[in-house]
Amino acid sequence: MVPGSGGMYWLPRLIGTGLAMEMLLTGRIIDAAEAMAMRMVNRVVARDELLPAAEALARRIVELPPLAVQAVKETVWRTMGAGVEEGLRVGEHQNRVLQMTRDAAEGATAFEEKRAPRYEGR
Length: 122
Hints:
By secondary structure, this protein is mainly α. It folds into 2 domains: 7-58, no CATH class; 65-112, Orthogonal Bundle (Lyase 2-enoyl-coa Hydratase, Chain  A, domain 2). Helix content is 66%, strand content 0%. Helix 5 runs antiparallel to helix 6 (84-99). The mean pLDDT is 92.
């Protein structure tokens, strides 16, 4: 058997071909500290802090304008492997579209009024 779920595709792109080949060919298991050093994970927390840390991250994302979150996800995935020009073009297009939304106006108004924005995804 070989790694599934895109492991053979994503791992070399994430950590580099040399480290990925070593892991894929040998099946070597790594610990959290090594995964952090290889940039395979964003952070390492104690087991009892895992759920609170994940929930805090999720709450932070949910507080952001949903259309902007969606645009970031879409742009990153659409431009993965694209050239610089294409990546910049797609990102600028997303910005122009987002600037025309109600959420953009709400964000500016909330900033001026020194209050938390109330995003609606419009």
